[in-house]
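Quick start: what a row looks like.
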Amino acid sequence: MDAKIPDKIFFKIGEAAEIVGLEQHVLRYWEDEFDMLKPTKNPSGQRLYQKKDIDQVFKIKRLLYTEKFTLAGAKKKLKERKKKDNQMDFGFDNNKPLKEWKKKTKRELSAILKILDKY
């Protein structure tokens, strides 16, 4: 579904629009609507998209055009994904082996401290 992104650091808005298959005005509109889509601008004010920006556009496009989300729904979905991506789940809740390991480690550290206190 997603086109291959050329191996470049920056893409002008026209190049980015061609890669994702959208018009430039759609990208400019989405920049206003989606906080996570903020391409950098060069000193003359020209938008410079990076690969991460183009990936973000592909995600937005899929949510809006394929999965038929509204703008508000797509924003909410992207924020949920970002929260999930940033939060690691180690499954520490009710993890008996982990609790045993922590107790053992505390005992061993206490023993080490007692030995060090003798010196």
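That is the whole record. The mean pLDDT is 87. The chain has one domain: 11-117.
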